[in-house]
Automatic annotation (TrEMBL):
SMART domains in UniProt: UBA
GO BP annotations, alphabetical order: protein deubiquitination; proteolysis
Taxonomic superkingdom: Eukaryota
Name of the top EC class for this enzyme: hydrolase
Family that this chain belongs to: Belongs to the peptidase C19 family.
Keywords: Hydrolase, Metal-binding, Protease, Repeat, Thiol protease, Ubl conjugation pathway, Zinc, Zinc-finger
Gene (UniProt): LOC107788509
Organism this protein belongs to: Nicotiana tabacum (Common tobacco)
Taxonomic placement: Eukaryota, Viridiplantae, Streptophyta, Embryophyta, Tracheophyta
Protein name: Ubiquitin carboxyl-terminal hydrolase 14
Catalytic reactions of this protein: Thiol-dependent hydrolysis of ester, thioester, amide, peptide and isopeptide bonds formed by the C-terminal Gly of ubiquitin (a 76-residue protein attached to proteins as an intracellular targeting signal)
Entry-linked Gene3D superfamilies: Cysteine proteinases, DNA helicase RuvA subunit, C-terminal domain
Length: 243
């Protein structure tokens, strides 16, 4: 949910967005009950089974934003394709790094596929301690530049967290041991909200439900909050109930 918009001249403007957040969330009806009668699991398809690599087309949203900045349309298409449509920033970085390529003005091949990634560059990032899947994504987003790929990883912590989650959950037995299943009911425990009229002023504060009362944490100031802004949070925290 967007809390800010960019106005003319790239000036950020804060939006007051209200969210109706319940005290208790029940998602038990969304729980999977496993394989049911007359259902069958889809086969696992491993990469490199002889199937043709999917053709990658440029994301026109990314291309349009780059063109609006004054870049050549064809160059923008190539940038989007060579960064696997990861985003405007990644595509622009690729553009700036490849503007003088001898084939930058060559037409895009109709048989264009997912960009090839140099194995040695993947190994370099893996040697830094990154997971191989994350290294591949970063290299695609940076056009194959190792330094920019490392910077992309540090600038996108959510991508790193998702990779760690995939590794953690790769073994079903380990997950069952470390993360026992529980109920599907969750109680609102806390939230983070922003105090201020714009993106240029104010700061973030936290509200925590403690002993049945809401407490506000505002830097060194801590006190009881009679009317916590439960509908204006930027980040919400829930705890799972036992039943």
């Amino acid at each position: 949910m967007r809390k800010f918009v960019m106005e003319e001249g790239w000036v950020p403007k804060k939006l007051d967005v209200y969210v109706d957040v319940p005290d208790i969330i029940d998602i038990r009806n969304m729980r999977s009950n496993g394989l049911q009668p007359r259902e069958e699991l889809l086969p696992e398809t491993a990469a490199g089974d002889g199937e043709e690599s999917p053709k990658l087309l440029a994301d026109e949203v990314i291309v349009a934003q780059l063109v609006s900045m004054g870049f050549n349309y064809l160059h923008c298409q190539k940038a989007a394709i060579n960064t696997s449509n990861c985003g405007v920033e990644e595509a622009m970085n690729w553009l700036l790094a490849h503007m003088n390529d001898p084939d930058i003005d060559s037409p895009i091949s109709q048989d264009v596929q997912t960009p090839h990634i140099d194995r040695s560059k993947i190994d370099t990032l893996v040697s830094f301690g990154f997971e191989e899947e994350l290294a591949c994504r970063a290299l695609k987003a940076s056009g194959g530049n190792v330094e920019q790929a490392a910077e992309w990883i540090f600038s996108n912590p959510s991508a790193s967290a998702a990779s760690d989650m995939d590794v953690t959950t790769s073994s079903g037995a380990a997950v069952d041991t470390l993360l026992p299943d529980g109920g599907g009911r969750y109680r609102l425990l806390g939230l983070v909200s922003h105090i201020g009229t714009s993106t240029h002023c104010g700061h973030y504060v936290a509200h925590i439900l403690k002993d049945g009362r809401w407490v506000i944490f505002n830097d060194e100031k801590v006190g009881i909050s009679k009317n916590p802004p439960l509908d204006m949070g930027y980040l919400y925290f829930f705890e799972r109930l036992e039943s």
